[in-house]
Amino acid sequence: MARPPFDIMRAAFLLLAVILLVMVGETLIAILACTYMVLAGRSQPGTCIDVGIVAQVREVMAEALTAVLALLLASQSKPPPDG
Questions:
Q1: Which has the higher per-residue pLDDT, 64 or 53?
Q2: CA 56 – CA 36 distance, rounded (Å)
Q3: Nearest to residue 51, comparing CAs of 78, 28, 72, 69?
Q4: C-alpha closest to that of 15 among 67, 59, 69, 78
Q5: What is the mean pLDDT of the segment spanning 6-12?
């Protein structure tokens, strides 16, 4: 049985998805740790704003949107005709 050909666009989308999941997971862990620190009484409410979680999430989503749009454009474009 022959293997299907390697699709570079599919691989790029999968790589982007893995990167996004890692970044979202890391941000979620930071939010949970900050919430735990406030609830445990080890820090005052509002001190987690200095961590910059909101700015980080905004930056990640902006870069992800740019990458997804670039990959979609690359997958839709057809190669120039030979000749």
A1: 64
A2: 20
A3: 28
A4: 67
A5: 82
Which pLDDT score, from 0 to 100, does residue 81 have?
Answer: 64
| Among 79, 58, 64, 59, residue whose Cα is nearest residue 18 | 64
Residue 25 and residue 33: Cα distance in Å, rounded? 12
The C-alpha atoms of residue 70 and residue 47 are separated, in whole angstroms, by 37
| Structure letter (DSSP) for residue 46 | T
Q: Is 76 a residue whose pLDDT tops 60?
A: yes
Residue labelled with tokens 């609830």: 39
Quote the DSSP letter at residue 45: T
Q: Which token pair is 44?
A: 């005052």
Element (H or E) spanning 18, and its range?
Answer: helix 8-39
Alpha-carbon distance of 58 to 73, in angstroms, equals: 23
Q: Is the pLDDT of residue 44 over 80?
A: no
Cα gap 74→82, rounded to integer Å: 19
